[in-house]
Automatic annotation (TrEMBL):
Organism name: Gordonibacter massiliensis (ex Traore et al. 2017)
Molecular functions (GO terms): acetolactate synthase activity; flavin adenine dinucleotide binding; magnesium ion binding; thiamine pyrophosphate binding
Name listed for the protein in its UniProt record: Thiamine pyrophosphate-binding protein
Swiss-Prot/TrEMBL GO biological process terms: isoleucine biosynthetic process; L-valine biosynthetic process
CDD domains tied to this protein: TPP_PYR_POX_like
Superkingdom, natural source: Bacteria
Coiled coil ranges: none
């Protein structure tokens, strides 16, 4: 099992039945994992990333469940910030998943960004409008991060969380745990 499959399995175990998304190159492994579980999770493809986040927000409001959306890196993730902000201001449980370049291309030791195509520090950008935003750096820490993100969205005052999901971490092998 890879981290993408782990995340989808986790969502299924939490009762997530619907996700909203917009395809892009750096989120494909997660989309493949969703496709493998199409019996359990319906994927609603949106016309743009902002629509994905807002649709997931609306779904959460109506269903009482966590809204989940996914986007690709850089401008795709940035376009979804309106939905995260809306969830922040209104206390709506929302889980955003943004694909990103491989972790080796994210913020090198020099501190410079933009090593990878459309790589953006979405965690820093989203920090003030999320309860929790994180970029996993290894498959080993991924289960803890997923659990933390989900629980943070639903506990206390509900709100939006963001997992910035690097391509190599999406593909990395992991124990089911």
């Amino acid at each position: 099992m890879n981290c993408s499959e782990y995340l989808v399995d986790f969502l299924v175990r939490q009762g997530v039945t619907d996700v909203f998304g917009y395809a892009g190159g750096y989120i494909v492994p997660f989309m493949d994992a969703l496709y493998k579980r199409k019996d359990a999770i319906a994927v609603h493809v949106c016309y743009n990333e902002q629509g994905c986040a807002l649709a997931a927000d609306g779904f959460a409001r109506v269903s009482g469940n966590v809204g989940v959306y996914f986007t690709t890196s850089g401008p795709g993730a940035i376009n979804a910030l309106g939905g995260l902000a809306d969830a922040w201001f209104d206390g709506v449980p929302l889980l955003g998943i943004s694909g990103n370049t491989p972790s080796t291309e994210i913020k090198g030791s020099s501190g410079l960004r933009q090593y990878g195509f459309q790589e953006t520090d979405i965690v820093a950008i989203a920090d003030s409008i999320t309860k929790y935003s994180v970029t996993p750096r290894s498959a080993k820490e991924f289960p803890k991060i997923v659990s933390m993100a989900y629980n943070t969205a639903i506990l206390g005052r509900k709100g939006g969380v963001l997992i910035d999901f690097p391509l190599d971490i999406q593909q990395a092998g992991i124990d089911r745990g």
